[in-house]
Design goal:
CATH superfamily: P-loop containing nucleotide triphosphate hydrolases
Largest sheet: 10 strands, mixed
Order of helices and strands: HEEEHEHHEHEHEEEEEEH
CATH architecture: 3-Layer(aba) Sandwich
Helix content: 25-40%
CATH class: Alpha Beta
Number of strands: 12
Shape: globular
Distance between the termini: 57 Å
Number of domains: 1
Length: 240
C-alpha cells in the first residue's frame, strides 16, 4: 500500500527542498519557460497527451504524481487517437518517460472529489485530476489555497466542455491537430501536429501559442521545427 505521508518528502529530497519549480520537457519550454511552478494551478483542455507530457520530466526527476478521475484504459497513444478518444494507459505513460512506480491512479473520487484532491495535494508533488462538471467557487478557492500552501501543482483537466477552472494561474488549450503518416490510403499514423494556446493571470497573463508534434515521430513530444527538419532529411535519404 502506498504511504501517502511518505511520498512527498521522498520526492522533495530527490528534487531538492524548496525547489522553485518542477521541470518540464525541453519541447514544452515555450509553454512553461520556468517549468511547473510549485503552488500553482494549471488547467489543461483538449488533450490527455498534453497532460501526460506535462508530468513527464518532473516524474523522471523523482516527483510523485497522481491521476484522479481520468480516462484510464489499455489503449495505446496512436490506437486511442484512431478510435477518436484519448485514454491513459501504462504504455502511453511510459512513452512520455513517466515513472510508473510513482504514478498511482484514483479511478474515481466520487462525491468527495474536493476532499480527495485536497488530501492528495498534501502528499504529492503533482495532482492531475479531471474537474467535475459542477464545482462550487468556494471549493475552487479552497483547492487553489491548498496547492499554494503545500507547494504542490494542481493540473485540472477539462474535456468535452465539462468542468471549469476560472481561478487557474495558467490555462492551456490544445486545438484538435492533424495526423500525418498515412499516404495513398496506406501506412501508419506517425505524428500529430497540435497547436496549444496558453494564457493566465498576473505575470502569466500574456497570451501565446506554441505548435508541437504531440506525439512526434521519434519521441512523445517534439518541437514542430525539429520534426520538420527530420522530415526533410528523410526525404533526401529516400531520393539519394
Amino acid at each position: 500500500m502506498l504511504d501517502l505521508a511518505a511520498a512527498k518528502p521522498v520526492a522533495a529530497a530527490a528534487l531538492g527542498a524548496r525547489s522553485p519549480a518542477l521541470p518540464v520537457l525541453p519541447a514544452l519550454g515555450g509553454l512553461l519557460p520556468g517549468g511547473l511552478r510549485r503552488g500553482s494551478t494549471i488547467s489543461v483542455t483538449g488533450s490527455v497527451s498534453l497532460l501526460l507530457a506535462l508530468l513527464a520530466e518532473a516524474s523522471a526527476e523523482g516527483a510523485w504524481c497522481v491521476l484522479v478521475d481520468l480516462p484510464v484504459g489499455s489503449a495505446t497513444r496512436v490506437g486511442a487517437a484512431q478510435m477518436g478518444a484519448e485514454r491513459l494507459g501504462a504504455e502511453a505513460a511510459r512513452d512520455f518517460g513517466i515513472d510508473l512506480s510513482r504514478l498511482p491512479v484514483v479511478p474515481t473520487a466520487g462525491e468527495s472529489w474536493t476532499n480527495v484532491v485536497g488530501a492528495l495535494l498534501d502528499a504529492f508533488d503533482i495532482v492531475a485530476a479531471r474537474a467535475p462538471a459542477r464545482l462550487a467557487d468556494a471549493d475552487l478557492r479552497r483547492l487553489v489555497a491548498r496547492a499554494r500552501s503545500r507547494e504542490s501543482v494542481l493540473l485540472s483537466f477539462l474535456s468535452g466542455g465539462a468542468g471549469r477552472w476560472p481561478m487557474a494561474d495558467l490555462r492551456l488549450v490544445a486545438e484538435p491537430g492533424e495526423w500525418s503518416g498515412i499516404g495513398d490510403g496506406h501506412g501508419r499514423l506517425a505524428r500529430r501536429r497540435m497547436r496549444i494556446r496558453v494564457d493566465g493571470r498576473g505575470q502569466a497573463a500574456r497570451s501565446r501559442e506554441v505548435t508541437l508534434w504531440l506525439p512526434g515521430s521519434r519521441g512523445a513530444v517534439e518541437p514542430h521545427e525539429i520534426a520538420r527538419v527530420v522530415e526533410l532529411s528523410d526525404v533526401r535519404r529516400a531520393v539519394s
